[in-house]
Amino acid sequence: MSGPLPLRAAPETPGSAPATPPPPPVEPAPTGTPPTRTGPAPVPAPKPAEPQRPVEVPEAATGLQPIAVLPIENLTGHPGDLAPMREALRAALETRGLVLLDDATLETFLEKHRIRWTGGTTAEDSEALLRETGARAALVTTLLAEDPSYPPRIAIAARLVTPGDPPRIVWMDAEAQAGDDAPGFLSLGLVDDPAVLQDRTLGRIADLLAAGMAPSAEGTRSTKQDLDGMHGRHRPRRWYRAPGLELRREVPARVAVLSFMDESGRRRAGDVVALLLVRAFASSPAVQVLEPGVVRKALLENRVIMEGGVSLAQVEVIRSLLEVDYVVTGTVSEMGEFLGRDGSPRVQFTVRAIDARTNQAVWSSISHNEGDDRVFFFGCGRIRSAAALASDMARQVAAGIIGPREKGD
After folding, report:
1. What CA–CA distances, in Å, run from 295 to 2, 59, 252, 318, 322?
2. CB environment 342-371: b (16+ within 10 A), e (fewer)
3. What architecture is domain 225-409?
């Protein structure tokens, strides 16, 4: 008796596709194994969110501490590595007993929120910084000018910003130094090492911040100073003040300072003068000047472009976005250092303040000064850097806007 005939593969026809091999046999599932389901795999249930751990704040931290020292903004117009300068600033602050947020926590926060610009802060970023790191204030530091050539020059501005909507500037100051500020007898006081000048400037900034945060009998020491009007050699050459301009009220006026137009040829000069004007306004209790980071964010998000200066229509937009009373802007025409022992810096700019509620110009001024203005005897009182000169000129403008009315206004 013959067995079953063996299976043979069908002969391939020229030009036809090869025969499809039979599927492999399916092995039976072991006993107790559930049958395999067909179709899409089930979506796993989401894991419950882990409770956020409370932020550990150092025991020595009080009031506005710990402080997050943000990377330094560069307004010098030329690139440079500012990380060593920031480390020197941190060391100067810690030497004076201030409690700082550790760098690892700050770097993680900046990377998480993709923060690249550190020349200011916003309401969202400041509140997230407090919530996630425990930092009760952020120190925003800006390098305004730096020249290592002889005699070296450096200028730094810094402000302490507390979280909120909007964030508040609770302290702000600036320091500008030159190697030939005080040459003294036989020029023994000359500083030719840029590193020494940098350490002096950073130490001065640290001293000013520590003094502003030092407690007094009434609590935290106030850094506000009433501007008592324009005086001295760096007041504006010409100015106009509207009869109805009066900022000395029970409720501080909200002021937004926009970036100035730059016609000086010195890169970022408009940003430097605008920041120095913010510093002058921040020193007065009559004004609540908005944090520059808040102003910048509002203009960028709403695509407010001011190529030829701010227009009245844009003032209305800015008022609706920021709820400000006054908008301040201007133009920088000249900001030169004129290096050398006999050189003298020159600064010229205009300032315009607009009442955002009425769209009327309430202040207009022209400032033009040199570092040796009204200097007669042996160079005493000469200002050696353009940043220092612009800082005093900006303060005089702010005093004219805020202070008591001058004769002839």
Report:
1. 98, 35, 18, 9, 8
2. eebbbbbbbbbbbbbeeeeebbbbbbbbbb
3. 3-Layer(aba) Sandwich (3.40)
Over the stretch 279-298, which tens digit does the pLDDT of each residue have? 999 999 999 999 999 999 99
* 3-class DSSP assignment, residue 338: coil
Name every residue whose Cβ is closer than 8 Å to that of residue 26 and which is 6 or more positions away in sequence. Answer: none
Q: φ and ψ at 196, to 5 degrees? A: -65, -45
| Residues 239/408, Cβ–Cβ less than 8 Å | no
User: Omega before 167 cis (within 30°)?
Assistant: no
Mean pLDDT confidence for 61-82: 91
Nearest to 83, CA basis, from 129, 130, 118: 118
Distance CA 316, CA 293 (A): 20
Residue ranges per structural domain of the chain: 62-223, 225-409
Asked if omega into 151 is within 30° of 0 (cis), the reply is: yes
CATH of 62-223, one of 3.40.50.2300, 3.40.50.10610, 3.40.50.2020, 1.10.10.60: 3.40.50.10610
Distance between CA atoms of residues 8 and 45, nearest Å = 52
C-alpha–C-alpha distance, residues 266 and 387, integer Å: 12
Task: Identify whether the C-beta of residue 398 lies closer than 8 Å to the C-beta of residue 247.
Answer: no
- Is the pLDDT higher at 17 or at 210? 210
Contact 72, 142 (CB under 8 A): yes
Give the closest residue to 236 by CA, choosing from 92, 367, 40: 367
pLDDT at 62: 58
**Amino acid residing at 260:** F
Burial class (CB in 10 A: 0-12, 13-18, 19+), 123: middle
pLDDT of residue 307: 81
> pTM for the full model?
0.81
Of 225 and 328, the structure prediction assigns the larger pLDDT to 328
Tokens of 146: 């730096």
What's the CA gap between 49 and 44, in Å, rounded?
A: 15
Cβ atoms of 396 and 347 within 8 Å: the answer is no
